[in-house]
Amino acid sequence: MNEEIIKMTANESLEATAAAASACGVCGRSAASRLRRGPVSGGCASVPRSAKIMRSILIVVLCALLSGCVSAPSPGLSLKDARVVEGPVLIERSGHVYLRYRRALEERGLTLLSMLYQKKTGDAAYYFFSVPISHPEWGNLIERPLAYDGTEELARKGRVFWLDPDGSKHSIPLKEEPNHSMQRTRASRSARFEFEHHWRLARAADAERSVCRAR
User: Fold this and answer.
1) Whole-model pTM above 0.70?
2) Is residue 209 exposed (0-12), middle (13-18) or buried (19+ Cβ within 10 Å)?
3) What is the pLDDT of residues 4-17, one digit of tens each?
4) How distant is the alpha carbon of residue 155 from its chain centre?
5) Among 6-20, 56-70, 153-167, which stretch is predicted with the lowest mean pLDDT?
6) 103 class by beta-carbon count within 10 Å (0-12 exposed, 13-18 middle, 19+ buried)
7) How far out from the chain centre does Cα 175 lie?
8) Is the omega angle on the peptide bond into residue 173 within 30 degrees of 0, that is, cis?
9) How far apart (Å, rounded) are the C-alpha atoms in residues 16 and 32?
10) Residue 38, Ramachandran bin (φ over 0: left; ψ between -120 and 50: alpha; else beta)
11) Chain segment 15-59, per-residue pLDDT in tens
12) Nearest one of 159, 141, 162, 146 to 96, comparing CA atoms
């Protein structure tokens, strides 16, 4: 009775191995036909071997899947073809730097969205568009905070570029937010006006004291 159970277990393991080989396209039918001819002497010893075969098949499949998922993104759309009508420009506001741009929409048909990626190599940072994907581009003004990418200091050093698929790079200028510069200009004018006002008052007081002394 025990020998029959052992032989049945060995045959089931061998049939499972043949099915796995058939799923992988490695002569499954011939393997299954050979393994189904009858019980193998010493079947218990063949179970670890089949387990090793299954493990090897799983490792090969996983490596094949992972090798296609780790490829780094690369530029898929040039700055010219992306029809960027505003920017790209770096804006410094409240101590942080933002990448600002806006794309134009097609007059006819749907404009497809391209993802914005960045990479750092050495002492420079590069931003670029991916190939268009199956999502609409809305033409909104985009501001990407460079603090998320860790590239603010590179932007202040003038080391941030836009990268095209052919490898050409475009320098992205850094500008200060106009509203903040206007506020500082107004504050400067106000301080100057206040200084001149106090200076006139002091001159008037000195003149009045001089008249009193003369009397």
Assistant:
1) no
2) exposed
3) 544 454 455 445 44
4) 17
5) 6-20
6) buried
7) 24
8) no
9) 9
10) left
11) 544 444 444 444 444 444 444 445 444 544 455 677 778 777 888
12) 146
Give the span between the Cα atoms of 191 and 7, in whole angstroms: 99
Q: What string of H, E and C letters represents the secondary structure of the chain?
A: CHHHHHHHHHHHHHHHHHHHHHHCCCCHHHHHHHHCCCCCCCHHHHHHHHHHHHHHHHHHHHHHHHHCCCCCCCCCECCCCCCEEEEEEEEEECCEEEEEEEECCCCCCCCECCCEEEEEECCEEEEEECCCCCCECCCCCEEEECCCCCCHHHHHCCCEEEECCCCCEEECCEEECHHHHHHHHHHHHHHHHHHHHHHHHHHHHHHHHHHHHHC
Min mean pLDDT across 9-13, 129-133, 148-152, 154-158 is at 9-13
Token pair, residue 3, equals 């020998």
Beta bridge partners of 176: 92
Torsion 188-190-194-199 (CA) sign: positive
Task: Report the candidate in 62, 42, 163, 144 with the shortest Cα–Cα distance to residue 98.
Answer: 144
Pull the structure tokens for residue 179. 């509203």
The tokens of 171 are what? 């320098």
* Dist CA 46 CA 36 (whole Å): 14
Q: Scanning the structure block, which residue is given the tokens 């990407």?
A: 144
